[in-house]
Automatic annotation (TrEMBL):
<dbReference type="Pfam" id="PF13855">
    <property type="entry name" value="LRR_8"/>
</dbReference>
<dbReference type="InterPro" id="IPR050333">
    <property type="entry name" value="SLRP"/>
</dbReference>
<feature type="domain" description="LRRNT">
    <location>
        <begin position="40"/>
        <end position="72"/>
    </location>
</feature>
<dbReference type="InterPro" id="IPR003591">
    <property type="entry name" value="Leu-rich_rpt_typical-subtyp"/>
</dbReference>
<dbReference type="Pfam" id="PF01462">
    <property type="entry name" value="LRRNT"/>
</dbReference>
<keyword id="KW-0325">Glycoprotein</keyword>
<protein>
    <submittedName>
        <fullName>Leucine rich repeat transmembrane neuronal 3</fullName>
    </submittedName>
</protein>
<dbReference type="InterPro" id="IPR001611">
    <property type="entry name" value="Leu-rich_rpt"/>
</dbReference>
<dbReference type="InterPro" id="IPR032675">
    <property type="entry name" value="LRR_dom_sf"/>
</dbReference>
<keyword id="KW-0677">Repeat</keyword>
<dbReference type="GO" id="GO:0005615">
    <property type="term" value="C:extracellular space"/>
</dbReference>
<keyword id="KW-0732">Signal</keyword>
<dbReference type="InterPro" id="IPR000372">
    <property type="entry name" value="LRRNT"/>
</dbReference>
<keyword id="KW-0433">Leucine-rich repeat</keyword>
Length: 118
């Protein structure tokens, strides 16, 4: 590849240097996004491996950012009042779920759709 010192040559060098910066930054950003998506630990919760503990958070809704690979979920000591249709959609790997010490008075008959191993 031949570089010239004219205006076009500088434009090529400037374009290549921008591409190099993008090539360095893009993977770093993607890895950061992937690692937080893999963890799927909602704010205020504690995650240990594939177990998520969202206890005593005064939650009125179940966090939506729980990883699909979650095996255990504790929502004890919150303010949950109802479990909606497909409430646990995407969490089909759950083997245990703690909902005690909430104020649940309404459970949709399809709240647990897709959870086969609970």
């Amino acid at each position: 590849m031949e570089y010239r010192c004219g205006r076009t040559g500088f434009n090529v060098i400037r374009l290549l240097s921008r591409s190099a910066v993008a090539l360095v930054i893009a993977p770093t950003v993607l890895l950061t996004m992937l690692s937080s998506a893999e963890r799927g630990c909602p704010k205020g919760c504690r995650c240990e491996g594939k177990m998520v503990y969202c206890e005593s958070q005064k939650l009125q809704e179940i966090p939506s950012s729980i990883s699909a690979g979650c095996l255990g979920l504790s929502l004890r000591y919150n303010s949950l009042q109802k479990l909606k249709y497909n409430q646990f959609k995407g969490l089909n790997q759950l083997t245990w779920l703690y909902l005690d010490h909430n104020h649940i008075s309404n459970i949709d008959e399809n709240a647990f759709n897709g959870i086969r191993r609970l």
